[in-house]
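hey so u asked for the seq, here:
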Amino acid sequence: VSWIHNATIGTRRVITTAPGGDQVKGGLWIEMNRSHALYGLPGRMTQTEWWIGNWQAGIGRKPADWAPTSFQGLKAEEVLVVADEATGLEELWEALESLASSKRSKLVAMGNPTDPNSTFAKICQPGSGWYVINIDGHDTPNWTGEPVPEVVANSLISKEYAQGIIDRYGIDSPVYLSRVRGQWPEDASDGVIPFSWAKACQKLNVDLSIGDVELGMDVGASEAGDPTVIREMIGNKAGRTWETRSSD
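ran it, structure tokens below
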């Protein structure tokens, strides 16, 4: 909020997104409205927009996954793109990165490390070119004893919640690793087939020249619905994936 406030009108803009509209309004924009009121900043804020005069300084948007182009045109000299719950934004990464394509623009992505096969997981790996900040629940004030205001302590992950996860899933479970320790697990907590099994299959020494080529197809609804997806299988190994939203 202060980043926008200290700029010349029309030069800076903040764009925020999340997997769901309620997350946009009930997460980031509640905090932005609180700061706007607390510090008496200019302009007016709604649940998803900040107007300073006729300049739209901030906007929160959750476009449909199949229509990332609805982000286009939201430009400024400096753009700060904030992606919350980034694991759930799989179809929007190209659009988000294009918004922050100018020299002084930035893209901040944050979220729980729940899906090790997501784009968010890939950019959090060493050598990705991203600056990664990992926050382990054990390093937060409710564990370390660091003095913080009560409202902050009550808003952070609690030891009671962590113990409940241990009792229910185990201390080495993907749920505990991702939700408490802030680490990428080998297996997605909601996966039918563990991700570690899929990774092991990728390492099998299989000659792709041997075996019949078969294609499995899931037909989508329309251009505005689910995509049509074709998956290749060569012998007993999964191959390439192709998808389209064409109605043809």
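Strands lie at 12-17, 44-45, 49-52, 55-60, 78-83, 106-109, 213-218, 228-234, 237-244. Residues 21-38 form the longest helix (18 residues).
lmk if thats what u needed
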